[in-house]
Amino acid sequence: MDPKALRDLLYFVQIVEYTSLNMAAQKLNASRVTLGRFLQQLEADLGQRLVRVDHEGMKLTQAGKSIYNKFKPIADNCYDEMKGFFGQSQEHEGVVKIIAPETYLDFWNGAQLLAFKQKYPGIHLDIYFGNALIVPSDPYRFDLVITGGLPSCQNFYINKLSTIRSELFCHEEYANKYGLPTTIDELRRHQNRMIMIPPASSKRISDGNRSELGNTVVIHSKQNNKTYSLEPQSNITATGFNASLFINSKSFIAETVIHNADAPKYYVPVLPNYYVKEFNMYLLRSQFATSKVVSLVSNLITENIID
Question: Which of 3, 28, 57, 196 could lock 86 by a disulfide, CB 3.0 to 4.6 Å apart?
Fold first, then answer.
């Protein structure tokens, strides 16, 4: 038998010695989530249900009883070698589910991430892409959430990661067709072809087929404290940071967040000495995600990954 498969079956025996996952977690110096995921992965590997967990505790299925009876004598002989597994080795193995804006990943420090993976090869980062400004409707599906929004509920630890800026870009064919604005006054002549991210406080005005934002966009200078007001005439607004759809249409100047170095060659910065908005980005950690693995990844994000 494969050594890892044998080890997992022996750990299974050690877990189900206790009447509940809570008791097993306490005795084995692990979180309930860690043990639950371990059992789920083992069942997936074996292709059969081994244990049922309900309000009364853990109950072995017939397949679970068969494995327990077969490997219990072996586990008893290996107890000293296994007793520290979940408190030491297992804490460095597992899957951490993260949801983050796709463009925000451009800001991650690749060298630090590679070093982390080399140090903890047993930790897998399962990354999903989400809206940058909105907390997911089901945030508890994830261990960690990177977002510009704040949750309405209180069951999260919140760390501010950074402040980033949105800027204006267009397609190179747009610049060739309409000209590339180089001053605020020239930009105002493009107001009917500008796509902006509405601020959370904006109010939408609808009148038949017409829809517009009831606010004025302010452009900020990077070089001094001056600001300039514009009133985009386009009835289209972007949601989140990723406005590539509008840039790729070759018909708009779009507000977005992107690293110039990582932008496609046909993305042309518009007024690169100015920005439109600043956003606070937060790391939300579910209070139910208590395993050491999640703590390691959380620390990685807050202390090392972000440049």
Answer: 28
Q: Pick the most confident of 101-105, 202-206, 265-269.
A: 265-269
* SS3 label, residue 192: helix
pLDDT tens, residue by residue, 22-66: 887 777 666 677 778 788 888 888 899 999 877 777 889 999 899
Strands (E), the chain: 51-54, 57-60, 94-100, 123-129, 144-147, 156-171, 194-195, 204-207, 210-213, 217-221, 227-230, 253-256, 267-270, 274-275, 277-286
**How far is the C-alpha of 220 from the C-alpha of 228, rounded, in Å?**
7
Q: How far apart are the first and last CA of the chain?
A: 45
At residue 214, φ and ψ (nearest 5 deg) are -90, 45
Which residue blocks in the chain are alpha helix, DSSP H? 3-15, 21-27, 32-46, 62-77, 79-82, 110-119, 172-178, 184-188, 244-248, 292-299
Domains and CATH numbers, the chain: 3-90 (1.10.10.10), 94-156+283-305 (3.40.190.10), 165-279 (3.40.190.290)
User: Which residues, at least 6 apart from 255, have a Cβ–Cβ distance to it below 8 Å?
Assistant: 166, 167, 168, 194, 195, 196, 197, 238, 243, 276, 277
Choose from 62-66, 132-136, 152-156 the range with maximum mean pLDDT.
62-66
